[in-house]
Amino acid sequence: MMLWTAQEAAAATGGRVAGDWQARGVSIDTRTIAKGDLFVALKAARDGHDFVAQALENGAAAALVSRVPEGVDPGKCLVVRDVQAGLEALGQAARERFQGRVVAVTGSVGKTSTKEMLRRVLGEQGSVHAAEKSYNNHWGVPLTLARMPADADFAVIEIGMNHPGEIAPLARMARSHVALVTIVAPAHLAAFDNLEGIAREKAAIFEGLEPGGTAIYNADLAVSPILRAGAKAHAKRVLSFGEKPGAHHRALEVSVLDSCTVVQARAWRSPILYKVMVPGRHFAVNGLGVLAVAHALGLDRARAVAALAQWHPGAGRGLRERILLDPVDARQSVELIDDAYNANPASLGASLEVLAAAEPKDGVGRFSEGRRIAYLGDMKELGSDEVALHQAVAGLSAMGPIDIVHCVGPLMRALWLALPEGKRGHWTETAETMAGRVARDLDAGDVVLAKGSLSMGIGRVVDAIRRLSKAPASPEIELDV
To answer: Mur ligase C-terminal domain location, by residue (predicted)?
Structure first.
């Protein structure tokens, strides 16, 4: 399907074209570029202009550039003054021609999983456009918009931030009909004075609402009044969700089981029963927010509830799988919860709750009882309270059922020292050193969580666990917090 002609892209960006081409997609990465894509030569860690020739060789229809690189056919270039501004203009033009309804999502935790829930739920009642990854920053949002088919019924736009002032311009670019805030939690505190500052930044998503739009926010938070005030300032309709009395969509009873979460709730002024096929209270509550979106869009309630029960979070945010340690005896296995993509206090607490609810297998390994084991890496960007926030993890109720905690990084040493001696595993400076120990640490019947900020490289621990396998890993449940 054609997405952009040369003339349409030039009109959208105010750029110059010397040739006639058609683009079926938009890409910023030559490693994943598809035939017929428009390659956007952004300047990030490296200058995208250095890869234009490669992109064209790999099948790109043309390239969005600020200069024609040496040796590149000018007829294959859309030349603009600034590539980032050109991408933003392309995204704004795509939004202008879009006739469907737009949902914007933000939050300290659960943006991506909620976006994927929405993809599944809305997809049962129309065609949906959403980014395949967490494209939620200053280039990710316009890229998602620029890729948006004009004839889709719904679009789901994920919006994130690292510093004050980032969300509002992205929200105005998205021009959503419904905007949702999942949760406000300590994350990026190095750039904010306090949690209230983060809440005000998250509430800025409501500034992008179209006239007559609906704002949806989590009512369970200490900073919920800030979200509510922001919602009332910019939305015609305001809905809340959560577990506390007064929420428009309220979870009454949440049952976290080993392989799913079942919820009795009240929504649409009626009792409902729904489930998500992943253990975790946070998934259940965010699912209620998704159902509130469906309500705001006037969708069929029964179909929305049924679709939510079919959702699994995408890979890359935590894959739950069984690692077979013996090619013959399937009981000789370790269950892995890979959540090594990112971490902050709220998401770590949620992941520990999932581990605490997991069921190890007894009598199959060297030890008589299976164990719940966590490999935890530093949580970054927490500001001046970073040491105390790491120490506080030791006091979480979810720590009770967890048997051993291994810690990686200088900040996690504070947690390691705060743990009861019986739970204290190993501490290492780097994930690479910890990865060298996993074969000795783990036993058949164990359930293992790996989590940390991306820069800590906890993925190396995950890779080491997967290398224990004597057979291909069998995916069971995916989770994303």
So the answer is: 329-453
